[in-house]
C-alpha cells in the first residue's frame, strides 16, 4: 500500500488524537507539529482517499452551534491503517540504518 | 441549533452546488467552525478572507458530485481539448501558420495597446481631473480664429471673487530654464510661477511642508524631490533653506517651504520648482491689464456645474471686463486639463484633434492587423473543412447538436489564440526595448490586471472572430450529404474566402502606400534646401545678464581655430515665431491689406555663419555705423510689399524709419508645415541672445571643448548646454518621424501576415489538387503551366485588392500631405510600386509553394487509392 507523505502525516495525526480526530482538530494539530497550515480542502481530500484505501474509518457525531448545526465526522485508524503506518516506519528505519554515520541509538 | 448571526451564507450555497453528499456536511461544518475560531482570533476581515480561501480549497474534482464531474459539459470540454490538440498535431503546418500569424498580430496589438494606453494616461492622475479646466481664449485674426491658453493676470482674482461656480483658480506662468543655486550647488531647472491654490487644483504629493500654505508667502518656493536631492541631499534638509533663482531678466532669493514628489504617472507639465505668483506680479515688467496675456489660468469648478452655461457666462464676463461689445470676439471657453495633451489642436475656435489623431490611427492599424491575422485563421480552417467534414457528419449522425459542434470549433480557436498570446507576451517582452527606442517612450509590461484583462479580452475576441465562420459553416452542413460524399465547396464559401483575401491585401497595399508617402515626405523635409546650411552648426543661448560681454565673446570665438564663423539671432533660425504687423514702407498703397511680418533680430556675420544667400544689396556690416537703423527683407516680403527696386528705399518699423540695405533669398525659418512668410531682419545684438557657431567639420569635438571653456570663463558656474542645429531641426518633425518609423513596422507586419495566409491557402490548394496535377503532368502540362494554373486564382485576388485600395490610398495620402505647406507631389509610380511590390511578394509566396508541388512525380501521387 502506497500512501503519500501528506497522507502519512494525516494518519499519524488521526492516530494521536484518539477519539477527537475530525477536520478542525487534525488541522490544528498539523499546524502545531509541522508549522505548515494545510487547507481544509486538502485535508478532507486526504481523509477521503485514506478512507477509500481502508486506512481510516469514520463515525458521525457532535453537531454544535459554531458548526451551524452540522455533524462532525470523526476518524479512527483501522487495523489496516495501523499496519500501513508501521510499514512506513519500518521502511524508513531500514533506510536510516543504511546511512553511514547516522547512529540512531545515540539519539 | 442555531446559526451564528453574522456568518455569511454564500459558502453554504456554493459548496452545496458542487460538493457530493459524502463530504458536504462535514466540510461545511469544518469551514464554519474554522470561521468562528478565526473570527475570535483574527477579526472579521481576515476571517472572511480565509473563509474564501477555504471554500476555494474545496473546489477539487474529488469532491464533485458524481453527476457533475461526469456531466456532459465537463466531458465535452475535455474531449474538445483532446480534439483540438490532435488537430494541431495532425496539421502541423497549418497550426504553425496560424500560431505565427496570430502571435505576430497579437504582438503588434500589444505594443500599440501599450503605446495608446500610455498616451491616454497623460495628466489623468489629478484627483479633480473631471472638473479641472484651463481657460482658453479665441481671438480673431487675419488667419481666422486663433485659440490660445494665455490670459490676463487680472482674470484669476476676478473669477474667484465674482463667479460663484468657480471653486479654485490658479494663475500659472511657465518660465524658461532658470539657474538655481544653494550655497554649494548650482543647477539648471525649469520652473513655474504659480498661484496660492496650486496644490488644491493639481494633485501632487507634498513630502515635506504644509500643503495648505506652501505658496502663501511671496518669497516661498516649492521644489521637486529630485531638485531637493540635487541641492541639499534630502527633501527634509531642504525645508526652510534659502535658494537663489535667476532668470534672464529677473530672479530672487526665496525660502523653500515644501517639497513635492513627482508623480509616477505621465504628466505633460514638467517643472522642478514653483515660485509664488506674487513674485511674478511684483517683478514682471508686463502691466497688469486686461489686454496683455502673460499667464495661463487653471480652475476647478464646483461639482455639477453646467459647462455650456458656464462658458457663455465666462465670455460675457470677460468682455464686460474688457469693455467690449459682447457679440464680438474674443470669446472664452474651458478645456479639460486632462484632455489638453491629446486634444491640442484648434480650428476655428474649436478643439480639432492633436495627438489623439495618432492614437486613433494606430488603434485602427492594430485592429486591422488583428483582423488580418483572424482572416488567415478563418480561411485556413474553412479550406480545411473538407478534411473535417466526415468528423462532423458522424457527430451529427450521433445526434450532437449544431451548437455543440460550433462550440467545439470556437473553443479550438480560443485555445489557439490563448497559445498565441503566450508567444506574443514573450516576444513582446523581448521587443519592448526596441519598441521604446522607436516610439521614444518608456513603456513596461507591468500593466497589472488591466493588461491581464486586456489580454483576456483580446484572446476571447480573436478566438470568437476567427472561430466563428468555420464553426457556423461546418456545423451547418447536412450529415447525410457529408457521409454520402455529396458535399462540394459552395460558391458563396469561395466568394467569402476570396473576399477575405482581397480585404487583407487591400489593407496591406494601403499601408505600403502610406509608408512610401510618409517616407518620401520625410525625405523631402530632411533633404530640402532650406536656403541656409544647418550642418556643423551649434546653437546655445547667451545669458541675458551677460549681455554686454556677448560681442567680446563672439570676437574671441571667431579667433578660435576650427571655427568658420559665428553670429547670433533672437530666435533659433529653424523656428522663428515672433510676428508683428502695422508696418509701413515707401510707396505703400493706402488701402492695401496689412502684411504680417516675421521679425528677427540679428548680429553681424549672419550670412557667413548660416550660409544665407543674398539676392540684392548687402547684410549688416561693421563698416557702416548706420546699419543699426537699417533693415534686410526676404524675397517674399519684397513681393508682398510690391517693391521693384527695394535697396535704398525705406521701411517704417515700430514707428522708426529704416533703410532697406539688402534682400536675402527665401529660406525656411519655420517647419515645412508652414509656408515662407514675409520677414525682416534688423541689427540688434542686445536682443539676439541665441548664438550660432559654424564649426569646421573635421575637428568638431575639440572645438566644442574650446568653446565650452571660453563660455565658462565668461559665465562662471553656468552649465554650457548646446544643440546641433540639424538635431534641433529634426525635433521639429518629431511626431512625424515617430509615425514614419512605426508605420514601417506595422505595414511590414500586415504584408507578412497577409502573405502567410496566402501561403497557407496555396499549400492547401496544392495539396488538394495533387491528383489533378499528376494527371495533368501525364497529359503533358509543363511545370510552368502548372504553376501558372495554380497561381492564377491568387494573383487575380491580389489584383482586385490593388485596384480597390489604390484610389483609397490616393485620397488618404493627399489628406495627410495637405498638412504640409511644402510637400511631395503624389506621383503615379508611388502607387505602381506599391501595387507591383504587393503582387510580386504574393506571387513569390504562392509560386514557391506551387513550384514544389508542380515538380512531384505523377506516379507518386496517383499510386495509392
Keywords, please?
A: 107 residues, mainly alpha, elongated, B: 865 residues, alpha+beta, 14-stranded mixed β-sheet, eight-stranded mixed β-sheet, 52% helix
Summarize the structure.
The complex is a heterodimer of chains A (107) and B (865). Chain A is mainly alpha-helical and 107 residues long.
Shape type of chain B: globular
Structural class of chain B: alpha+beta
How are strands sequenced across the largest beta sheet of chain A?
1-2
* Biggest sheet statistics of chain A: 2 strands, antiparallel
Give the second-level CATH assignment, the architecture of chain A.
Orthogonal Bundle
* Most residues in contact, chain pair and counts: A-B, 23 and 29 residues
How much of the sequence lies in strands of chain B comes to: 15-25%
Top-tier CATH class of chain A: Mainly Alpha
Give the termini distance of chain A in whole angstroms.
29 Å
Overall tally of domains of chain A: 1
Helix content of chain B: 40-55%
Number of strands of chain A: 2
Beta-strand content estimate of chain A: 5-15%
Biggest β-sheet strands, sense, barrel of chain B = 14 strands, mixed
What do we call the CATH topology of chain A?
Arc Repressor Mutant, subunit A
Our count of helices of chain B gives: 29
Verbal overview:
The complex is a heterodimer of chains A (107) and B (865). With 107 residues, chain A is mainly alpha-helical. Chain A has a single domain, classed as Winged helix-like DNA-binding domain superfamily/Winged helix DNA-binding domain (Arc Repressor Mutant, subunit A, Orthogonal Bundle). Helices cover 55% and strands 11% of the residues of chain A. Chain A has helices at 5-17, 23-34, 40-53, 79-98; strands at residues 56-61, 72-77. The longest helix of chain A has 20 residues, at 79-98. Chain A is elongated, with a radius of gyration of 16 Å. The mean pLDDT of chain A is 86. With 865 residues, chain B is α+β, with helices and mostly antiparallel strands. Chain B is 52% helix and 17% strand. Chain B is built from 29 helices and 28 strands. In chain B, strands 1, 2, 3, 4, 5, 6, 7, 8, 9, 10, 11, 12, 13 and 14 form a 14-stranded mixed beta sheet that branches. In chain B, strands 19, 20, 21, 22, 23, 24, 25 and 26 form an 8-stranded mixed beta sheet that branches. In chain B, strands 18-27-17-28 form a 4-stranded antiparallel beta sheet. In chain B, strand 5 (178-181) and strand 6 (186-189) form a beta hairpin. In chain B, helix 16 crosses helix 17. The radius of gyration of chain B is 36 Å and the shape is globular. The interface between A and B is medium-sized, with 23 and 29 residues.
